[in-house]
Design a protein that fits this description.
The chain has 176 residues and is of the alpha/beta class. It is 32% helix and 18% strand. The chain binds cobalamin. Cobalamin binds next to helix 1, strand 5 and strand 6. InterPro entries: Cobalamin-bd, Cobalamin-bd_sf.
C-alpha cells in the first residue's frame, strides 16, 4: 500500500501505517548586536524545547547581517529576539527592518522580548513601535506570564503544553 508522509513541523511521530506526523516549530533564538547577556537565551531555548520546538540559538552579540543570513539559510517557523541590556528597543527596530526587507523573511513570525528599555515606563509606546516595525509579538518583562506560551500554541497547535510547575517568562502583549 502506498505510504503518505505528513510533514508539518518539528518532532516526529506516527499516526498510522507510514504516516509521519511532526509537531513544533524550527525556531531561531537570538539577541541583538549590542547585547552580551546569554542566560536569557538559554532560558528561552530550554522553554521552547520543553514545549516541543527545535531551537537554533545564535548566542550573544549577533550582528544584524549574520542574523539575517542565518534566518534566510534556516528558514525558521519563528524568530525569537531577546534583549535585556536596555538597548533592545532601538536594536529591535533596526533588526525588524533588516529581516522584513528580505522577501523570504517578510512573513516569518517574529517576536521580541526581555528588558527592552532603560526605564520602567514607555512599554506601551515601545510595543506599538515594534509591532509597526514588523514584530508579531512584543513580550516585555512585567506582562502576563502566559502570553508567550499562548502565542506559541496559536502558531503551532500541535506543540506540547508547559509541564506542571515549569517556569514561564514574564511577558506581555502579542499582536495576534
Ligand atoms: C548577569 C548579568 C550581566 C552579565 C551577563 C553575563 C552573561 N553571560 O549573560 C554581564 C556582566 C556581562 C552584564 C553586562 C551588562 N549588563 Co547586565 N545583568 C546581568 C544580570 C545580573 C542577570 C541577567 C541574567 O542572566 N538573568 C537571568 C535570565 C534567565 O533572565 P533575564 O535575562 O531577566 O530574562 C528573563 C526575562 O527578561 C524573559 N525574557 C528575556 N528575553 C525574552 C524574550 C522573549 C520573547 C520572552 C517571551 C521573554 C524574554 O525571560 C527570562 C526569564 O524570565 C541582570 C540583572 C538581573 N537581575 O536581571 C543585569 C542587567 C540585565 N544588566 C544590565 C546592564 C545595564 C548591563 C551593562 C550595560 C552594564 C555595563 N554598564 O556594562 C552590560 C551590558 C553588556 C552588553 N553589551 O549587553 C541591566 C539592564 C538594564 C535595563 N535593561 O534596563 C540589568 C537589568 C541590571 C540592572 N538592574 O541595571 N550583565
Amino acid at each position: 500500500m502506498e505510504q503518505h508522509a505528513v510533514e508539518q513541523h518539528g518532532e516526529t511521530g506516527t499516526t498510522g501505517p507510514g504516516a509521519v506526523v511532526t509537531t513544533g516549530l524550527d525556531v531561531v533564538v537570538t539577541t541583538v548586536a549590542s547585547d552580551s547577556h546569554t542566560w536569557n537565551l538559554v532560558f528561552l531555548q530550554l522553554l521552547l524545547e520543553e514545549l516541543g520546538h527545535r531551537v537554533t540559538n545564535l548566542g550573544a552579540c549577533v550582528p544584524d547581517a549574520l542574523l539575517v543570513a542565518e534566518c534566510a539559510r534556516l528558514a525558521p517557523g519563528l524568530i525569537v529576539v531577546s534583549s535585556v541590556n536596555g538597548h533592545g528597543f532601538p536594536d529591535g527596530l533596526r533588526v525588524a527592518a533588516a529581516l522584513r526587507a528580505r522577501p523570504e523573511l517578510a512573513r516569518t513570525p517574529l517576536v521580541i522580548g526581555g528588558k527592552l528599555g532603560i526605564e520602567g515606563t514607555g512599554a506601551d509606546a515601545r510595543r506599538r513601535a515594534l509591532l509597526a516595525a514588523g514584530f508579531d509579538g512584543v513580550f516585555e518583562e512585567g506582562g502576563s506570564p502566559g502570553a508567550f506560551p499562548a502565542f506559541l500554541r496559536a502558531l503551532a497547535p500541535g506543540g506540547r503544553p508547559p509541564l506542571d510547575g515549569a517556569p514561564v517568562p514574564v511577558v506581555s502583549g502579542a499582536r495576534r
